[in-house]
């Protein structure tokens, strides 16, 4: 099994296109962070963070005076004020104007990781069929299930590589732009019980990565299933990336139907439970995890059935 | 050495939808034999080979390789098989050596030395670290042979192995296969639609037509006449009279006049002097007698009934 994964890795990393994808990933992170810093970050350095937070609190207090403010918004602004006050009292600066502002913002670029990993996963099996190498691959003492699993592991590893690229480059580039001075700045947040806590910024970042990673894994699994079912890279890559972008549009159109909460797209974004605004009333984190697990199992079952049972004819 | 066949097919049938592609194939290949599959395009040669290596499922019957069932004991059975299924497609973006490493990793016990050994066997030492996309077709074929032999298989399966090889390459492959069967006792199953090639290569041939096994026989038997009579051409003047004279004789068949004053006759060798004497007695001038040797193609068409794609 280890050997099979080594083989799959060789087939991924000995190709120029893989390194182009990794290079593009790095370039995107550099570019976006630089633009952010150029347009926003420099300003934040100018004004003191204390002044900025005080100003923010004033604005929030104004908003809270509005009588027709919704319940959700009211609690949101109250929380923000409490957190800002904590910053001011404990003399812990906010992330504005520090490297963490850029690093945390870069986590949003995980969609690029999803797209690039879909490209590798969608071509992984279909590519072997179109080049004809599948024949020589399958006449070895390794069952088709093992081949399937080794391929799956190999592009999850590729996704991890892209994630590490994102992490390291965003730390380094933001460190250079803003300075590494606030490396150990804690994250101030409020728990569900209304308690203000300090937590490690890096740990929190990886928590965000992992939550976003769930969606990556789902779309990549979908691409692999299509790749296995239709043996066409173009279809697997095109359809999965299409679904990734069209998903939200479809959701908006279908939100009024109760059953739309069972759609894959409604559940891939687990961060919806962090900010407390789920797609539909009554959806919970465990509901989404349940739905995702079912999709995950169904996708893999289809891949397995279609790959192990069908003849290799062409 | 055991007498157990290396590969044994019994009542193998393949159906796709309602069409029967392969119909009840049964044959064994003993150790050290080169066994040929002959048949027109579409007869089911490639399908049979794909079932043997497990790329296609078997609708009915079973295939045993060294006693292991390819369906239920795939990993143990396929371990003994090396194969080229149609043209050997390799990973073009990898070097020849990396391709071999790739396949070596999939079978336990293939050492680095063994890789070097097969590389020198197929004479690719100088180019083995080049990317496969820079290889010529002949070099790709040789790399294909190398990957098939890498794990020292007991059974080598070659589907149209000479496609794309030049005459020297074909000869080299042939000599090499002979060498493998004689010295290492490897059995070879090879398919081709080129009869002359099969005649030089195989010990036994199976003739496949429309998915059915028409005949299995040693190659000598296949190329030899199946009976005692042969066709002769007699050049005589005047031909019309010669025709009438021969027709009246005993032990002759299919006497007919063909162009240029040639009379064709099917008879036993011993009847020829009598026929000639008879002609001379009737004052017919004889200019020549010629044996028409039946070509492999004709023999093949005779066996398969002349129908090409069924």
From TrEMBL, chain A:
Gene Ontology annotations for the cellular component aspect, listed alphabetically: plasma membrane
Keywords: Membrane, Transmembrane, Transmembrane helix
Stretches of the chain forming a coiled coil according to its record: none
Pfam families registered for this protein in UniProt: ABC2_membrane_2
MF-aspect GO terms: ABC-type transporter activity
Domain of life: Bacteria
Positions of transmembrane segments: 16-35, 107-131, 152-180, 209-227, 234-254, 285-307
Keyword rRNA processing: no
Keyword Transmembrane helix: yes
UniProt name for this protein: ABC-2 type transport system permease protein
Lineage: Bacteria, Bacillati, Bacillota, Bacilli, Bacillales
TrEMBL record, chain B:
Keywords, sorted A to Z: ATP-binding, Nucleotide-binding, Transport
Keyword Repeat listed: no
Organism: Neobacillus niacini
InterPro entries the record matches: AAA+_ATPase, ABC_transporter-like_ATP-bd, ABC_transporter-like_CS, P-loop_NTPase
GO molecular function terms attached to this record: ATP binding; ATP hydrolysis activity
Homology family: Belongs to the ABC transporter superfamily.
Full protein name: ABC-2 type transport system ATP-binding protein
Domain annotation ABC transporter: ranges: 7-235
Signal peptide: none
Domain of life: Bacteria
Organismal lineage: Bacteria, Bacillati, Bacillota, Bacilli, Bacillales
């Amino acid at each position: 099994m280890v050997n099979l994964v080594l083989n799959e890795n060789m087939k991924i990393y000995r190709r120029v296109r893989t390194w182009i994808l990794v290079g593009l990933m790095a370039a995107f992170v550099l570019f976006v962070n630089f633009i952010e810093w150029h347009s926003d970050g420099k300003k934040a350095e100018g004004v003191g963070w204390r002044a900025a937070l005080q100003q923010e609190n004033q604005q929030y207090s104004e908003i809270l005076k509005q009588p027709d403010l919704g319940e959700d918004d009211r609690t949101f602004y109250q929380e923000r004020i409490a957190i800002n006050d904590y910053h001011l009292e404990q003399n812990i600066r906010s992330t504005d104007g520090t490297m963490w502002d850029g690093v945390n913002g870069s986590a949003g670029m995980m969609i690029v990781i999803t797209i690039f990993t879909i490209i590798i996963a969608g071509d992984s099996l279909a590519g072997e069929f179109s080049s004809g190498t599948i024949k020589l691959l399958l006449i070895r003492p390794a069952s088709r299930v093992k081949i399937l699993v080794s391929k799956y592991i190999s592009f999850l590893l590729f996704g991890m590589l892209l994630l590490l690229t994102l992490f390291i480059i965003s730390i380094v580039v933001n460190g250079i732009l803003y300075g590494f001075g606030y490396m150990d700045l804690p994250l101030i947040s409020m728990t569900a019980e209304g308690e203000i806590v300090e937590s490690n910024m890096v740990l929190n970042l990886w928590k965000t990565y992992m939550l976003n990673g769930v969606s990556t894994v789902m779309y990549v699994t979908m691409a692999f299933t299509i790749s296995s079912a239709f043996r066409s890279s173009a279809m697997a890559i095109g359809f999965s990336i299409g679904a990734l972008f069209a998903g939200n549009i479809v959701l908006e159109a279908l939100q009024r139907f109760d059953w739309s909460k069972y759609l894959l797209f409604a559940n891939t974004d687990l961060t919806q439970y962090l900010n407390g605004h789920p797609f539909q009333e009554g959806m919970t984190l465990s509901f989404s995890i349940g739905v995702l697990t079912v999709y995950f199992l169904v996708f893999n079952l289809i891949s397995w059935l279609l790959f192990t049972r069908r003849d290799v004819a062409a | 050495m055991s007498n157990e066949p290396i590969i044994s097919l019994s009542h193998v049938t393949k159906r796709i939808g309602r069409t029967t592609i392969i119909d009840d194939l049964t044959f064994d290949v003993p150790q050290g034999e080169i066994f040929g599959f002959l048949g027109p395009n579409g007869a089911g040669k490639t399908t049979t080979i794909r079932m043997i290596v497990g790329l296609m499922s078997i609708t009915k019957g079973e295939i045993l390789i060294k006693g292991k069932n390819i369906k239920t004991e795939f990993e143990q059975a396929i371990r003994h098989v090396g194969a080229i299924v149609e043209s050997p497609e390799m990973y073009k973006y990898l070097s020849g050596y990396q391709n071999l490493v790739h396949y070596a990793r999939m079978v336990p016990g293939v050492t680095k030395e063994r890789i070097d050994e097969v590389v020198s066997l197929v004479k690719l030492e100088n180019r083995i670290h080049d990317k496969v996309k820079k290889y010529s077709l002949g070099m790709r074929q040789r790399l294909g042979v190398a990957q098939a032999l890498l794990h020292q298989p007991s059974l080598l399966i070659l589907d149209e192995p000479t496609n794309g090889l030049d005459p020297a390459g074909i000869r080299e492959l042939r000599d090499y296969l002979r060498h493998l069967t004689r010295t290492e006792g490897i059995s070879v199953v090879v398919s081709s639609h080129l009869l002359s090639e099969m005649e030089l290569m195989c010990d036994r041939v199976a003739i496949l037509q429309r998915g059915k096994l028409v005949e299995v026989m040693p190659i000598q038997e296949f190329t030899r006449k199946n009976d005692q009579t042969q066709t002769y051409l007699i050049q005589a003047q005047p031909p019309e009279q010669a025709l009438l004279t021969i027709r009246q004789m005993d032990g002759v068949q299919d006497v007919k006049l063909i162009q240029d004053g040639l009379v064709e006759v099917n008879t036993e060798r011993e009847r020829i002097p009598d026929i000639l004497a008879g002609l001379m007695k009737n004052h017919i001038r004889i200019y020549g007698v010629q044996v028409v040797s039946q070509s492999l193609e004709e023999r093949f068409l005779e066996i398969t009934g002349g129908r090409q794609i069924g």
